[in-house]
Amino acid sequence: MFENSSNINLTEDNETIVWKYLDLSKFLDMLLSKKLFMSRSDKFEDQYEGTFSEPTYEEIKKIAINNPEFLDYYKSHREKVVISSWHANEYESFAMWQIFTKNNEGIAIQSTTGRLKEALQPETKFKQYIGEVNYIDYKKEHIPFEDMFFPFLFKRKSFQYEHEIRIISDVSEQNLKLRDGLKIDVDIEKLIKKIYIHPKSENWYKNLVIEMVHRLGYTIEIEKSDLESDILI
């Protein structure tokens, strides 16, 4: 649970627009459970997730010569850190639709960094850190390690297209054994500013999403995708 807003570290602009692209089943699970799924950091496709760049690793190895448990802790710690990834962009991203949805079906949630902060406030058991990912050269650049969250706010430059802002939780103190991740309580109405439906989806699919959201009692605005706009000649 948050003691105050200082427990959350945000980018300076709380109006930064962020997106999450997901399939209908995950979206429905979020609406029904009123929880946000956070994936275990070592379960991401990027195997470097939560690890260190080469210069930092060499520095840590020197420290660990007389304290081998120091290095072992960093390796095992990835299993205790969970992440929810969001794409920072003023507009919809055609690339994100392609990467995170299939068969011309899916949902894009539009939010802001300020809304993420507000949505996480109620009765959260785990401290949250919200930060912007830095993209660096892992062969040359250094990753600071004085804060346990820092390794999870750096990725390789090849992932720069993600423009990622992420929510990070460390559940080490809770002694939890996580399989794939965990779900945390969120205020859905505060979390979601707008819902966008896949631009290439059929009308029946669009109607299904609209009816589902309304039947569950949500008043969230549902927008037509900007990528679906009619061509003007």
UniProtKB/TrEMBL annotation:
Report the InterPro entries cross-referenced here. Answer: DUF2971
User: According to its UniProt record, what is one Pfam family this protein matches?
Assistant: DUF2971
Q: What is this protein called?
A: DUF2971 domain-containing protein
